[in-house]
Amino acid sequence: MTDYPSSLGVKHSYTWAKVIPPTTQAAQLEYAYAIKKGQPAWLEVINNFVLRVKSDGRLLRYAEEHNLAPIAIIDTANN
Question: Integer distance in angstroms from the first to the last C-alpha of the chain?
Fold first, then answer.
């Protein structure tokens, strides 16, 4: 059992591998950037970048390009 991106990597690397989707919805876990505490300016840069790529469509475009659209969170209202 692994996360979705890792399962795609294994499937790509090994011809015998198969991704078996869960029969019920699994817990949803969000990916995140980690930065050192006490860097509010850097946090603002990162947060603004994420908002921009969600708003202008780049996040979805690249997620689709890399088969990650099923796990992309595009809604900019919940940031």
Answer: 29
